[in-house]
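Support reply, case 0932

Customer input (verbatim):
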Amino acid sequence: MRFRKIHGAGNDFVLLSDLGPEGDKEWPKEAERLCARRTGVGADGLVISRLISDRPAVLEVACFNADGSIATMCGNALRCSAWAAHRDYGFQQLTLHMAGVVHEALVSDDSVWVTAEVSEVLPRRLQVVINGRPTWFDSADTGTEHVVAIVDDVDAIDPVMVGRLVRHHADVAPLGTNVNFVQAVGHQALKIRTYERGVEAETLSCGSGAVAAVVVATMRGLVARRAVTVHNRAGQPLTVRPHDARPTRTQWVGGPVTHTFEGVLA
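Our regenerated output:
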């Protein structure tokens, strides 16, 4: 099986495209094997993309986290899949299906955009003490569970230590949550660090987390309801903006996609 190593603004994946029937495998175990940083290809997740239709262009996309769990929404995995379909077939507008949810995608020369559906937003979902200060986390479901803390300085926080504590907090049991620390850094701009459930580590970028950050920051009055730049650990910002037709329910998230290398899996 041929694979691509590809990343969306630093969030990296092993991408398998258009596998035939012989390509069906026990994907959770394959994800653990392939995503291992020292013994595998190394990635935050394994993405399986299948072309369902070319007129119109429709892809079925599945994403498995590095621990083998399935991701119900991964904005950067969707963006990487759309980029690959653009390169392989020339598609610029696509429909993507992930975990039963329909997403739109737009591909240009320098960026890839996909939609994220925002459902429940809950202020003050849980509280923990960070660096001696009680800190509230709001929650926002952007296709997967996220909590967001607005902080003064994201670099003063240990995202792994605090992230693990919050990820397993009783108030988000039994599923747990992704954990985001967000700082306002100027006009319509945020800085973010994310601890991802399923990767069980800080990732360089998170598409659904960027959307959750903007939703919460908008609710808190830190940014206006229009395009917001979200600066991540990779130094490759994502932009989040409302969907023209469904501005209160749907957000676009866009940014760069980079093809790192490709190879053949034994």
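We compared this against your earlier run and they match. Two observations from our side: The first helix runs from residue 27 to 35. The domain at 121-254 is CATH 3.10.310.10 (Diaminopimelate Epimerase; Chain A, domain 1). Please reopen the case if you see a mismatch on your end.
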